[in-house]
């Protein structure tokens, strides 16, 4: 079933007298539990699209329907609540708090969302049981990214939005991170959306949305996605 409907969504940025169309009449749907790769070159509008889906930014026109709710019509307060509750963000550079341990980086959420998340338990789900009390600086890049994935899945979000999640990692570690995202997708039925310029990850996706100059160039669907090798 459909989780996300993007209906004729455009986003323009005004730069002095210039107008940049970072998104131009985008139209597509994403199903619950799908792994979607948004693929395109630098400057094609991938981050803009991710920011729109994540409610970090509002379209100039068009609407985004998520789980039958029109998030385009949300107030800023409703958007903030929606982001905190329904979306896990994963970034290229992990965004961990340096003076908190891995476990504390996850449990810090308990003060924000009204829950009692067990950092130790979530970290074991991403294979980091041995590292719960380490600080980010004591972990490798791949381990730091696993902490940030653990933090993102702790609140059981409807979707994970990943902006170049392997961009700072070597290719072997990058593949391990993609495997982890695939397994979350399968075991939790989480919708995973990965924005990247790395076409290596296209084959693992159920759907690949090719973006060029702010437009959907074409959409590929994979009946039988492959694993990363
Ligand atoms: P990508 O993530 O694919 O590199 P972006 O979404 O970052 O692409 O950018 C798409 C286009 O929109 C680019 O031409 C970029 O310069 C422009 N753009 C992005 N953000 C802004 C902004 N805040 N103000 C003005 N132009 C922007
Ligand atoms: P790019 O450099 O291609 O724009 P980034 O990964 O640096 O991509 O950032 C993507 C977007 O995510 C940024 O526009 C920023 O507004 C947003 N962002 C970055 N960090 C956070 C965060 N911790 N929480 C919420 N939004 C963030």
TrEMBL record:
Record keywords, A-Z: ATP-binding, Nucleotide-binding, Transport
User: InterPro entries per the record?
Assistant: AAA+_ATPase, ABC_transporter-like_ATP-bd, ABC_transporter-like_CS, MacB-like_ATP-bd, P-loop_NTPase
Q: Which GO terms describe its molecular function?
A: ATP binding; ATP hydrolysis activity; transmembrane transporter activity
This protein's record includes keyword NADP: no
Residue intervals of the ABC transporter domain: 4-229
Its domain of life reads: Archaea
Q: Name one GO cellular component term.
A: membrane protein complex
**What family classification does the UniProt entry report for this protein?**
Belongs to the ABC transporter superfamily.
Q: Which PANTHER family match?
A: ABC TRANSPORTER ATP-BINDING PROTEIN MG467-RELATED, LIPOPROTEIN-RELEASING SYSTEM ATP-BINDING PROTEIN LOLD
- This chain belongs to the protein called Putative ABC transporter ATP-binding protein
The lineage is:
Archaea, Methanobacteriati, Methanobacteriota, Methanomada group, Methanobacteria
């Amino acid at each position: 079933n459909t989780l996300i409907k993007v209906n004729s969504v455009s986003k323009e940025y005004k730069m002095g007298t210039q107008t940049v169309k970072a998104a131009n009449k985008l139209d597509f749907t994403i199903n619950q539990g799908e792994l979607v790769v948004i693929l395109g070159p630098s400057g094609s509008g991938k981050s803009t699209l991710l920011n729109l889906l994540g409610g970090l930014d509002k379209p100039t026109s068009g609407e985004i329907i998520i789980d039958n709710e029109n998030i385009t019509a949300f107030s800023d307060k409703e958007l903030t609540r929606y982001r905190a509750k329904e979306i896990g963000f994963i970034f290229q550079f992990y965004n961990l708090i340096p003076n908190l341990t891995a476990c504390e980086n996850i449990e810090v959420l308990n003060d924000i969302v009204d829950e009692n998340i067990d950092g130790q338990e979530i970290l074991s789900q991403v294979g980091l049981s041995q590292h719960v009390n380490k600080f980010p600086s004591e972990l490798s890049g791949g381990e730091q990214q696993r902490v940030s994935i653990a933090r993102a899945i702790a609140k059981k979000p409807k979707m994970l939005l990943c902006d170049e999640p392997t961009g700072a990692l070597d290719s072997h570690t990058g593949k391990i991170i993609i495997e982890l995202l695939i397994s979350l997708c399968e075991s939790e039925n989480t919708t995973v959306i990965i924005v990247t310029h790395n076409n290596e990850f296209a084959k693992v996706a159920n759907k690949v949305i090719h973006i060029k100059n702010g437009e959907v160039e074409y959409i590929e669907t994979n009946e039988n996605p492959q694993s990363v090798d």
